[in-house]
User: Fold these one by one.
Assistant:
Number 1:
Amino acid sequence: MGDNKLLALDNIDLSINEGDFVSIMGSSGSGKSTLMNIIGCLDVPSSGEYHFRDNNVSTLNSNKLAELRNKDIGFVFQNFNLLPRLNAQENVVLPLLYSGKNLKERNQLAIEALESVGLKDRVHHRPNQLSGGQQQRVSIARAIAGSPKLILADEPTGALDSKTGLEIMKILNDLNAKGITIVLVTHEDDIANYGSRIIKMKDGKILEDKKNVNN
Amino acid sequence: MSITDLIYLSQKSLRSNILRSILTSLGIIIGVSSVITMISIGSGARIEVEQQIERFGSNNLIVRSQSSSNRGVSMGANSVNTLTLKDMEALKEELPAIKAIAPRVSLSTQIVANGNNWLATVTGTTNDYFDLGNWKFENGRSFEEEELASGSRVAIIGKTVQKNLFDTDSPIDEVIRINKVPFTVIGLLDAKGGTTWADLDDTVIVPLKTAKQRLVAKKFPGDQIRSMTINVRSSDLLFKTEKDVDTVMRKLHKISANGNPDFVIRNYAQFLNARQESSRVMSILLATVAGISLIVGGIGIMNIMLVTVTERTKEIGVCMSVGAKKRDILLQFLIESLMISLIGGLIGIALGLGVIFGVSEYFKWKMSLDYMSIVLSFVFSSSIGIIFGFYPARKAANLNPIDALRYE
């Protein structure tokens, strides 16, 4: 309060290489969400710089940020965040709509993405007709439909039972194997263990940043 | 993002709340149907007035005999003929604003021809009658000077009389008997159609002198006549001339300025004005209803769009996270409100058309559908959708993606 500014992130110096699978861990209030928002170009830091590939993100306006998210970044959320009125295919098409791809191309890409997560026979189902695991796979399809460089997964297994959670992790692992960089936010050790690098945060600072020897 | 995609997404969300969308557009529905009805009433009245002028001629005053109700007893309009041809001549002389006067005597009587008979109004008058009353000839001719002067037994008949007496379309040179007096038909008038109170085509016209000598000698003795139609040179002079005619007639009939006159002056323009006035009042009323309901409808749209934006905050966040720009979000919500108002507009147009046809069928009130009113309704409803949808849409577009995503 008063003059004391609350720093969500404090003195973070972090670089993530293309093709990495990074798990970020921390309790609530540790700053992991803020870090993720900045990495995902949803927010810009109040001071300091963030570079994403060739872009100095700190200087971009909201339209440029939207473009960057659209082209290079895919999001997977804990609660899937699918639009309830749209069927699986239409949900996957959504980012392609904003990138201005034509009808034929985007339907093609959406079907391919759904196939790659094993939902070929569910393209016309709406979210409420799908199980949690299936919904999460639709949201992964949505994230990868525009062939992004980076996928940000915020507690992707948080709303799923452990067996389904493992299936989702397997899909993310496969995507990483194809060269897509993955940043995963979680508080579960065994989920974090899928990463090749684990970053632990506390009070807005990086507490620990090490290669994952178990992987 | 193309317009078709935007429309596709908008109709998806409108459909998911179909009842709400329609209820929201209720104000627009009422507003637009009022606009259409209002314009139709206005143009219907205008057309009716034009038709009436076409029928009865413009700038005419009609002076009729009227029994002065001395001692409080009215003798009925037909009982006394107080007008004379002398009055007519005096008026012509005194008032230069008068272009022409057509005198008239009349009776209702049996017409026989061709083995048929028919009850019609027979008018005795001069050739001015045709010009003043906007009568055209379908066949034949008007009276010749010589026929008028000598009182020839020639007649000009209206369409209804022709249809009821003759099988042929051309009754020229046929003979009809009026009150047993034979007349030769020399002309057939163009049909004017009926008014609500009379069939104008149910008429037989003969020279004034002939009528006075052979048909109504007892009813209109001397130079008495039933009425006269006065044609005024221009419409600006109409009301002044009406007053002047009253003054001159009072002088001629020796009636004081506040005494009961034994004549009555009908100004047809008065009736037309009254008709136009009443439709104007109706239009103003409807315009008020339209204005209020369009504004209320607009506020209704704004209200429901604000609710929608709040309900879909999380969705907006999701769209932004997958790459929707501010402009995309703004356009999507604008198109949604535009669609609500256009749906309202369409239903309103349908309702308006229903009202127009219903009213004109049921009340026999002339309404004319003006296609401009449909264009106008579209313009009205779409601008309302855009104007009142803008604030909620901008609110949605200005959401911060992180806050929107976190919204529960």
Number 2:
Amino acid sequence: MTLLDVRGLTVRAADGRTLVDDLSFTVAGGERLGLIGESGSGKSLTTLAVLGLLPDGMTSTGSVELAGTQTVGATEKRLSAVRGRDAAVVFQEPLTALDPLMRLGRQIAEPIARRTGLRGKQLRGAVRDALEKVRLPEPDRISRAFAHEVSGGQRQRVALAMALACEPKLLIADEPTTALDVSVQAEMLELIDGLVQEREMAVLFVSHDLAVVSRVTDRVLVMKDGRAVEQGAVHDIVRAPREEYTRALVASARQLESALDLRSPR
Amino acid sequence: MTGTDLLTPTKGRRSRRSATLVVGCVLAGVIALLAVVSFFWLPYDAEDTSGGRLAGPGDGHLLGTDKLGRDLFTQVMTGSRIAVEAGAGSVFIAAVLGVTLGVLAAFAQGWLDDTLSAFLDILIAFPTLLLAMLIVAARSATLGSAILAIGLAQSAVVARLVRILVKRVLAQDYITAARTSGTSWPRSVLFHVLPNIWPTLVVNLALQFGLAVLAEAGLSYLGLGAPPPNASWGRMLQEAQATFTTAPAGALAPGILLVLLVIGVNLIADGLRDTLDPATRRRRT
């Protein structure tokens, strides 16, 4: 069953520049697709366009069907029904993705309350559960804290808990590990991997890092300058990249890895 | 506590901040107290001219009397009531109208945004005095007219500020994040946008309070404020002008109180900025 069906998606800036050009891909229920490319290749815009959240002035054409709802040109009312229920997003920078003046617990409670209608004590319990699921220590303290009072890794876990609290069919992860320390990155990826598997959620994983994408996803779509360059199973792309750009991407990832090998003591 | 200990202000610095707030509260509080007491008790009736003309301080009249023999302290007390009412009333109008307009303007796009911005700019450029004269001409010279004029003029300033603040918050990731989880626009504004513009807004409103008090004094100096016998500080200044050299108390008393109230309110605004600013609050924890 196709959960997300993007066909001929084109995003234009206010001045008429084409930022995403005739992009097509699908994500089936429970499937994981990696969206990879250098910064400015239109990855993030694609995810925003999926939810009808493009910045002011940008327009999208083509077709995006998310769980059967057309989101290109949809009304705000229609879109807000889809958001959260069918797809939720984890953003790159957790500090800016959390309201600085609202306690973290309340921010997680908001989508839970909307979805389940829980209140008071039960709602607090659900928030606690949500925080424990993302393996945060001292959920009660974190629940009462503001975003600036917890560490970067904890913030991103809170953001993940917020997205998962919606119980979406599709989790969109927009460079969720880029702003984190390398040591925390692996943990975060493992966490996303496990939680998504548990829930049989589909994932659209956006990253510029081939190594990160290949850890979490089954299939990958390579983007450059707003266009799809190559699409296929992760191991095929890594082993036998067909396009020039993909080859360069794989080569540079390998180069980094071999540099590590050379430096590590044998 | 995260790793931002380096930024934690020392204790002395923080207490100096709250000192600003305390001094401001004391200054404004004294005048607020005078205003509140004036509702229940005044030394003399407002039209009691038994004191003899231009009597000096003392002899049953704490500050002396004016040229008609009315008690100056009584006038100063009613004046502080009028000043506080003018400040509060104008800021209330400015806050309600300004925030509503500002939020709407922030959401408006294209030509509507341009039109609203131009309208606000014209309203800001429009002299408050002229606006007050128009309103007085349409209604009558009452305190209400003055408050309405000042409030309207200030709401444009507040609206322009709110528009910018809201636009800045709307561009933040956490608004997008809230919307991706399905939060509706009204809810986002109520729970995410307004709390985040609140610190800046409340400081600005405190400043507007001081400006409103000054503006009301100016209007009543010109005879566009509260009508006699309710003495407002502005009219007291105007009436005492001719006799300033012989009986300075009539001008000094309202003048000094006016300055104290405005300084007090501005200090409160300053203190609020330091305690409410998320950037400083971030370091307190």
